[in-house]
Amino acid sequence: QVGGFAWENCGDRTDPVVLQSLSVAPDPISIPGSLRVSAAVSSSKAMASPLKAVLVVEKALGDLWIQLPCIDELGSCTYDDVCTILDNLIPPGTTCPEPLLTYGIPCHCPFKAGSYSLPASDFVLPDVELPAWMTNGNYRVRVAVSSSGEELACVKLAFSLQSQ
How many CB atoms lie within 10 A of CB 20? Predict the structure, then answer.
């Protein structure tokens, strides 16, 4: 499916963290704009530091998919410890931002095992200066999260971006 939002789990059945549902509107996603997201995730084991995330981001150019490089922490990047990034964004000890707070979704490591669900919630996508190669178009993203060499989760997303 080219153009249009889609997702799938790409890990094997033993991955402890599984995306159960995910919906995003509008489609295509508009920047700046409002994004409505609902999601459900289940985890059969706690996720603790260091949590490594490997992103592969591809953009459609005609019939070709081109892997985008990692530039300024955007694109096909490897983040060696997501926990530290979260701590930098949201200082430990402060409350998690809405709507996470309302729905009891943690924003710091370790993440306990269990089920987490986010009912349809609106997020504002600010008018950020995205590099030209990250604007309008169709994208595919693969995110693999691991800890100490063990894969915890793998999710593939496809979406379209439209910037004003």
Answer: 12
